[in-house]
Design a protein that fits this description.
- The complex is a heterotetramer, with 2 copies of chain A and 2 copies of chain B.
- Chain A is α+β, with helices and mostly antiparallel strands.
- Chain A has a domain of 57 residues.
- Helices cover 21% and strands 22% of the residues of chain A.
- Chain A is built from 2 helices and 5 strands, in the order βαβαβββ.
- A 5-stranded mixed beta sheet of chain A has the order 2-1-5-3-4.
- Chain A is globular and about 55 Å long.
- The termini of chain A are far apart.
- By secondary structure, chain B is α+β, with helices and mostly antiparallel strands.
- Chain B has one domain: Aldehyde Oxidoreductase, domain 3, CATH 3.90.1170.40.
- In chain B, helix 2 runs antiparallel to helix 3.
- The longest helix of chain B is centred in the middle third of the chain and has 19 residues.
- Chain B starts with 9 loop residues before the first strand and ends with a strand.
- Classes of the chains: A alpha+beta, B alpha+beta.
- Chains in contact: A-B, B-C, C-D.
- At the A-B interface, helix 1 and strand 4 of A face strand 5, helix 2, helix 3 and strand 9 of B.
- Strand 3 of chain B pairs antiparallel with strand 3 of chain C, so a sheet runs across the interface.
């Protein structure tokens, strides 16, 4: 018996300073995907200590600012929203 | 970011006109959208690119946006303003991409029955845009280096 | 009043542009006067003619002015605003004669380094214009009668 | 001996409601010309009681808002400034 197994990466869109810090416009997490917004923030702070300067930076899930306890799935459109500077 | 250009760049109905544009903005496009025979007061805010910022000479700005979320945040803000300040029509155009000195980064136009509501609405819209809407600017200095503006 | 047309109808220097005009006003003329590479914020107020006022349907307005005094009062107000609010450039164009519905009665444009000063200056200018500058309007109703507006 | 005597009328410019009330754009005072702004205001209130509704209406002398005690001469440019309504 063949078990088909599709692993879906979690993709994080990076803008502004987040793209500068991470060095790319899409950051991929394959293993140990964070299950909440707060966990993702912790992951980013650990991997990229420069985010500390902008902590607590915002995250958006499906194009809406996300709350810390919000659940994440790899189907969500997830984005890092560093301090904005439009206008 | 070419990718965001595959998203729609505007949200327009009969009373709200929100656009992200890669081409130079037109003050009159915003004015013409909001003018209304029920309204006596129109306020427009135009944000232009200054040559100097905090002692540095700037040669150009570059705006990037998270376009679908920027449009949806602007729509929310405009709807709130219409309800809260009794604004009749609102037009917000924001430039994306490269913008030169004295060029326009943003135009906000608001029409109201009376003038004080127009001023209040317009100030609310630009203040809230600068605080919440996912648009970011890079400022290019004369030596070609750039600085990603981040106002926490 | 043809007589007042023998007076000059504008006062213009490099930073202040004040005009009384018998022709339709241009928002862009005012915008282009104030845009400045030292300024990031431009606020414009545009006063347009509403079709309804206090329950009456209006067909047109007619503005008359005591032109030389109106120009000199506007100049004083603009100078005060420049000093008090740190406005860089100010343009004020007021229509005289007959003005139709949704046409522009007045345009005020102000450029400042930062946006909050631009809003404050523009609101001060229109408030003070409406209080002190010798310009009067007649409002024509649909039956052809008119009413001389006087707000004490 | 011939005495030459030139009598100069005092002209008052009328705008807005003042023109409506007085019925002309220039109001002439030949006799008993008021010597101060306040005296002129009194004269107008007496001749045209409708001004009471707008009292104290402003007067301008030489294109500047005038104070009550200010002296008038027939060389001055004098104007009635009823409540303004520009903008």
């Amino acid at each position: 018996m063949l078990i088909s197994f599709t692993f879906v990466n979690m993709k994080i869109l990076c803008f502004g300073l987040a793209a500068e810090i991470i060095g790319q416009r899409e950051y991929i997490i394959s293993d140990e995907q964070p299950s909440t917004v707060e966990a993702l923030r912790g992951h980013l702070l650990e991997q990229f200590p420069q985010f500390r300067e902008y902590h607590p930076f915002m995250l958006a899930v499906n194009q809406v600012y996300a709350l810390a306890e919000q659940q994440l799935s790899s189907n969500d459109e997830i984005a890092i929203i560093p301090p904005v500077s439009g206008g | 970011m070419m990718k965001s250009l595959s998203y729609p760049l505007s949200v327009v109905d009969s009373q709200i006109d929100i656009q992200l544009k890669a081409e130079p903005l037109s003050v009159m496009d915003c004015y013409n959208f909001v003018v209304d025979e029920h309204c006596g007061g129109i306020d427009l805010f135009v944000g232009t690119v200054r040559r100097w910022n905090k002692g540095h000479e700037i040669t150009k700005l570059e705006f990037e946006s998270y376009a679908p979320m920027a449009l949806s945040e602007l729509k929310k803000i405009a709807n709130h303003a219409k309800a809260h300040f009794e604004a009749k029509k609102i037009s917000i155009h924001h430039r994306i991409g490269t913008v030169g000195i004295t060029e326009i980064a943003v135009v906000i136009a608001v029409s109201c029955k009376h003038r004080s509501a127009a001023f209040d609405t317009c100030a609310y819209l630009i203040d809230t845009l600068k605080e919440k809407v996912p648009i970011w600017k890079k400022e290019y200095k004369v030596d070609g280096s750039y600085w990603v503006n981040a106002r926490p």
